[in-house]
Every structure is written in C-alpha cells, then in structure tokens.
UniProtKB/TrEMBL annotation:
This is HRDC domain-containing protein. Residues 506-584 form the HRDC domain. Keywords: Exonuclease, Exosome, Hydrolase, Nuclease, Nucleus, rRNA processing. Belongs to the exosome component 10/RRP6 family.
Length: 669
C-alpha cells in the first residue's frame, strides 16, 4: 500500500497489484506457456508450473479485491499514478488474453478481442475460451483413459472397486466389506494376472462412456417410455401398462403437442398405502447414529451380492436411500451409484455395473412395511423407474418434512448441520460418478447422503407429531405416484433461453437461435451427449448473434472440438435460418402484386412440424386451421394484449371474440 503522503497515489492504489503482475515469475511463465513456441512441460515441470500459477493467481486475486470499486474507484481515478497503473494493467491483461485466443489457432479472433471496448464482451469471450479449453481437457482425458485400457477387460473395474480386506465391523457373507473410513476404495487391489490400472487415471477407457457396454440399445427418440418392470412383487393388482390421456401431459413451452405416456404401474399400490402406527409415531428414545468412520461400508458390484442384499433388506423395517447421477456426457443421464443405509451398515451399489440387475430390489422397495427414507426424492423416484424399472411404496421424504416444519432451509446440508452437527463437503456435488474406483473422499460424501437419513427421520417425527407426520407421508406418497415420461423436443422452448440471457436479438438472430437450438438437440441425441456438452447456452447465444455463414466467420468464435467437427452443419443451419428470416422482410418491401415468399427450414428432431416462414404461409388463415406452431405460436386465452410477436409471423391483432383470429401480412394491416 502506498503511503498516504503520496499525492499521486490514492489510499488504496494499484501499485502493489501492478508490481506483482509485472514481476511475478509465475505470470511470466504463464505468458510463456501461452506462446505458440513455448517448450513442452513434462509432468514434474507441469506440476510445479501449476502450483506456481495457482499461488500467483491467489495472490493476484487478493490484491485485486483490495482495489476500490464503484464510487471509491471513481475517486481513485483522480490520482494520476493510480490511473496510469490501472491503464497499464488493463493493457497487459488484454494482451495476455488476446495471446491466449491467438494461441488457439485463431489470430482473427484475437484481433477482434483486442478491438472490443465493452468489458462484458471481453469477459464473455474469455468465458467461451475457458469452456473450449475445458472441453479439450475433457476430450484429452477421455483419450488418455482409452489408451490406458489394457487388454479390454471391463470387469477390471469391479475388481478395482474395493479390496477384500478384513473389515473393522462385522463381516458379511456377500459384497466387499471395506475398512473403517472406506480406505480400501482409495487403495484398490487387483486379481491375479490382471492388467495394472495406471495410477494417473481413475478408470479404464470404457468407464468414461459406460453406456457403450449396456445390453440395451440407447434410445434417445421421443417415443413413449415403456416401463421396464419385468415382474410386480407386492402387487395388489396384476401388472398392466396403461396409456395416460394426452390432456394430462404438457411440454416446455406449452405449444408443442405432448406425447403419449404410460401411467405408473404401481399407482394402485401407492394410492392404497396407509402408514402404520409405527410409521406415524416417533420412537420413545431416538438412538444416536454411529459415526461414518466407525460404521461398516459394503461395496456391491455382483448380482450374487445384490441378491443377498435383497434378503438382508427384507429383515429391516426402514432404510435410507440416495442416488448419484451423471448427466453431462449423456442425453438423458443415468444413475451411477445407489446408496442404501440400515441402522448398522452402508451399502454402495455400483449401478453402472449392475444396471441390468437392480430390478431385484423392487421387492424391498415396494414393500409397504419397509419405510424408505429419502431426501428430495422428486427426481430420484423417476430415475429409478427410467434406468432400472424400480418403484417406491412407503416413502418418507425428509425434504417434505422440513417443509411441513417450516424450517429455515429444506436442504440436506442444513438438516445434517442442524440435527447431526455434520457439515457435508459440497466439493463432490458435481463429481463425475462414472469414475472407478471412487476415492476415499467421494466415498465419505456419498455415505453421508444416506447414513444419517434414518436418524433424521426419527428426530423430525418427534417434532412433527402424528398429525403433521401423516401430512408428510401424504406428500411423500404423491412423489411416488409420478411416472417417468419422455419430454418431447419443443423448438419454441428456445425462447426461454433468450429471455434468460436478457440480451436483445433481432428477428434474424432469433431465427438462427431457434435453428441452432434444434440442431443442438439432434446432435445430442445422435452422440448421446447432453445439450450443454454439445453447445453451451452462452455459446449458442454468441453464435446466434454472430450468425457466421462462412468458415472464416465461424473461426472468429472459440469452438469445442465437437463443434469444430460439425462446423459445416453449423454454417448450413445458420445460413438457412438467416435466409428464411430475411424472406418476410423482403416480401413486405416489394410491390403488392409480388407473391410473398415461403421458405422451409430444416425439420427439427422429434417429429415436430416443418418450420414454414414467409407471409404466404400465414396470410388469411385462421389460427385454428392448423398453422404450424413453429411459425405461429398459440397463446392461451388468458394471455394479455399486446402479445409478444414471434419474428417469423406478422403482427397479431384481436378481431373480437365472435370472430376467428386471423393472421395477416404487414401489407394487409
């Protein structure tokens, strides 16, 4: 901090930050690494570089936080030294970021970045570049895992999942008991003569794409989901599949027609469930939970172990359940891990390895005499149906209990801290649960999600009392009634993203946004990737604004490797949508005798109607006469006027309740 007596420096000047930025060796190393001629870094050097860079960034962040902001910043700018220092730092940062962009084989984009005046535009450019680099890292890691997959033995994953070491607790005749703290998963063993798993990779190459090993074919279409139920244990009525009426279904925007869907096969049993007196009342004395590190943890990755677990669960009256899903590298997502806790043990079930066998657990899960305690089961009950054909009867949801108790927060983290004095580590909330073997930290995290649920249930029942406890059971039962259905692709849902971005788009840009939104969904289905992986929302918005119609224009925008592979398709989609959006404008500017043009955009996935644009497809037709929803969205009767105008349709005007609503060209209006 500069001395207060210095008239050229404000009380909080940039001199320290400037000196650190200009002289720090890590910053210099970073700039050198950004250069195309930088020498390659070998593992020891790269580790040292990463540590040095991180320390430098932490120091720089601390110093930047000391800089004045808002009104204090305006005052500080009146000091010449502060102003000149900040100007120098800004230029250095701009040059460094431009160098990073240029190093990605895109000099034109670097020049564009340097010419940007708006700081927010520069920030968006760096966010896009960061996304691209992270995607590249992910792709390289996938490649590395594939190269490390020696001998192609996928079963090696299960052997590496845990060591058959002696457990600190009571040994069980199935599964793989783990020592206290689940350390066995941190130091896995391997069977004799098996290929050694490289320590630098957490899993074999197939673990990064486990869906490639599934027995069933991946179906990402919009066909109705057929329940996977093979048998119906604990049934009150025989198994039958019933289609729901379309009127009970909806889509994202409410405009596209919903698909048919099957009802919950256990709906009758769920509706018939009534909690017993024991389930409604709290225990006289609540038994304190055992610490996680002193409890036994059992890893289940074989069908034999799963069958024995099913028999084990039949002997208890309550279990805690939680799931871990992966959704980034899959179109619909899939469950990777299932945790089941009793009063004595925690069971970790490899849902990737046992995907085709987990239906065996329907017997305990649909047994109304066994209380299933879950937290926030809204999505979990649907994931169980989608992946394994599992259904739940007799659910007590602690999130619903928190809502009935009107607690300060309904999150599991809040409940664990309030009732158990446990602060969970949120670092692993977004972990990649496909990885095998799991680390000790990951094991601790997933165990905490189910280990304390039974204790939470007891404590919350005490506070609820019988009447409010019955209300929690009722609310939890409503969650179990849900049936997993396929949400059809709705091209008009792209407007939700546009509104969320709070960024004005011209009608032409909006048409491009819609076309890329549909194209992204097509590619995600084909590649079995998430839409966010194929084309992040921020990058979708940027492409819609830029409307690149050539390779040179597209290269101005940082792209992921997957998008670079589809660059020709992107340019084609952008060009078609932009040209189609130009047609109405050119038609309105021509003479009245000129026939308005009509253009057909590429048909989106999921069987949606073709996108007709231009005045001729709308002129003089009543709204209820079957105009494609993509071209003329329908609005509910309660919608207030003036209605939002879609860029591909002329203005809408109310013509009176007794008259059919007409769509007319701008010339007629």
């Amino acid at each position: 901090m500069a001395p207060a007596a210095d008239k050229d420096c404000p009380p909080h000047s940039a001199s320290q930050f400037h000196a650190h930025f200009a002289t720090n060796s890590s910053t210099a190393a970073y700039a050198a690494a950004a250069s195309p001629v930088a020498p390659p870094l070998h593992p020891p050097a790269s580790q040292q570089f990463a540590k040095s860079l991180f320390d430098s960034l932490v120091r720089g962040t601390h110093l930047s936080n000391e800089l004045p902001s808002t009104e204090a910043h305006e005052y500080a700018r009146t000091y010449p030294h502060f102003s000149s220092s900040m100007g120098g730092i800004s230029q250095q940062l701009t040059d460094m970021m431009a160098s990073m962009i240029s190093n990605q084989h895109n000099p034109a984009a670097a020049a564009t970045f340097s010419s940007l005046d708006d700081v927010s535009d520069k920030f968006d450019s760096m966010v896009d570049l960061s996304d691209k680099l992270l995607e590249r890292v992910d792709a390289e890691l996938d490649t590395a895992r594939g190269l490390s997959h020696v001998r192609g033995d996928a079963r090696l994953l299960s052997h590496c999942a845990a060591a058959p070491a002696a457990s600190a607790g009571m040994p069980l005749p199935f599964g793989r008991p783990l020592p206290a703290g689940a350390a066995a998963l941190h130091t896995p063993t391997r069977p004799p003569n098996a290929a050694v798993m490289p320590t630098s990779a957490h899993s074999a190459g197939s673990a990064s794409r486990p869906q490639l090993r599934w027995k069933e074919e991946i179906d990402n279409s919009d066909r109705a989901f057929v329940p996977k139920l093979r048998a119906k244990p604990n049934a009150l009525v025989p198994l039958q599949l019933v289609l729901q009426p379309r009127a009970a279904l909806t889509t994202a925007s409410g405009l596209a027609p919903p698909l048919e869907a099957y009802a919950n096969p256990y709906e009758h049993e769920i509706c018939a469930f009534k909690p017993s007196e024991a389930q409604l009342s709290a225990p006289v004395e609540v038994a304190l939970f055992s610490p996680v590190h002193l409890s036994q943890c059992i890893w289940i990755d074989s069908e034999a172990g799963l069958s024995t677990l099913r028999q084990r669960l039949a002997s208890v009256s309550e279990i805690g359940i939680d799931l871990e899903q992966h959704s980034y590298r899959s179109y619909r997502g899939f469950v990777c891990l299932m945790q089941i806790s009793t009063r004595e043990e925690d069971y970790l079930i490899d849902a990737v390895e046992l995907r085709h066998s987990l239906h065996l657990l329907n017997e305990p899960l649909t047994n109304p005499a066994i209380t299933k305690v879950m937290h926030g089961a809204d999505a979990d009950v649907l994931w169980l149906q989608r992946d394994f054909g599992l259904y739940v009867v007799g659910l007590f949801d602690t999130a619903q209990a928190a809502a009935v108790l009107e607690l300060q927060s309904y999150s599991l983290a809040h409940l664990l801290k309030a009732y158990c004095g446990v602060t969970p580590n949120k670092t692993y909330q977004l972990a990649d649960w496909r990885i095998r073997p799991l680390t000790e930290e990951m094991i601790t995290y997933v165990r905490e999600n189910s280990h304390y649920l039974l204790y939470l249930c007891d404590r919350m029942k005490q506070e609820l009392g019988p009447q409010r406890c019955a209300h929690v059971w009722q609310r939890s039962t409503e969650l179990c009634k849900q049936a997993y259905t396929i949400t059809p692709f709705d091209a008009d849902a792209h407007l939700t993203l546009v509104r969320r971005q709070k960024d004005h788009l011209t009608p032409q840009q909006l048409a491009v946004h819609r076309a890329l939104f549909a194209w992204r969904d097509d590619v995600a289905r084909e590649e079995d990737e998430s839409q966010s992986y194929v084309l992040p929302n921020q990058l979708l918005q940027q492409l819609a604004k830029a409307m690149p119609r050539s390779v040179e224009q597209l290269q101005m925008i940082p792209l992921t490797p997957l998008l670079s592979k589809h660059s020709a398709a992107i340019i084609a989609a952008v060009s078609a949508a932009a040209s189609a959006a130009e047609a109405p404008a050119s038609a309105s500017g021509s003479s009245a005798t000129t026939a308005p043009s009509t253009t057909l955009l590429p048909q989106p996935a999921g069987g949606c109607a073709p996108i007709l644009t231009g005045a001729s497809c709308l002129e003089g037709r009543p709204l209820q006469a079957g105009i494609p929803a993509a071209a003329a969205p329908l609005f509910p009767p309660s919608a207030s006027w003036p209605l939002p105008v879609h860029p591909m349709q002329p203005a809408l005007q109310p013509l009176g309740a007794a008259q059919p609503l007409q769509l007319r060209t701008s010339q007629q209006l």
